[in-house]
Amino acid sequence: MIIVTTDEIPGRTIKKTLGLVRGNTIRARHVGRDITAALKNLVGGEITDYTKMMAESREQALDRMVEEAETLNADAIVGTKFTTSMIMQSASEILAYGTAVLLE
Question: CA 14, CA 84: separation in Å to the nearest integer?
Fold first, then answer.
C-alpha cells in the first residue's frame, strides 16, 4: 500500500477514486505517566512516555486506515492527514484519513 500526503503519486496515474478511508484510536493518559510528566515539567525536556504513546497511537490509526483501504481493494491512499482532538480531560483521539485510489 502506497501512502502519501500529496494528492498525486509521482510517476503513477490515478485510475479511480474509491473514497474516504480513515482509522482512529482513542488513548487515555496513565496516572504513572502523569506523575513522571509533572516532574519533567519542573525541569523541562521531552516527556518520552507521552512521545512513545502518541507515536504508537499514530501507527495504530494508520494501520486501521490501511485496513479500510484494503477492504476497497485500493492500491494507494493519497492526501493522508492526521488530526488530534481531546475527548475528555485525560483522553485524546488520533484520526488518520485520506482518499483510497486505484492506480494504473
Answer: 29
Strand-strand pairing, 76-88 and 2-3: parallel
pTM (predicted TM-score): 0.84
Q: Which residues on adjacent β-strands are paired with residue 21?
A: 98
User: Model confidence over 22-55: pLDDT tens digits?
Assistant: 999 998 866 555 566 566 566 667 777 788 888 9
DSSP secondary structure letters along 3-58: E-SSSS-TT--EEEEEEEEEEEEEEE--HHHHHHHHHHHHH-S--HHHHHHHHHHH
**10 φ, ψ to 5°?**
-55, 130
Complete domains list, the chain, with CATH: 2-28+60-103 (3.30.110.70)
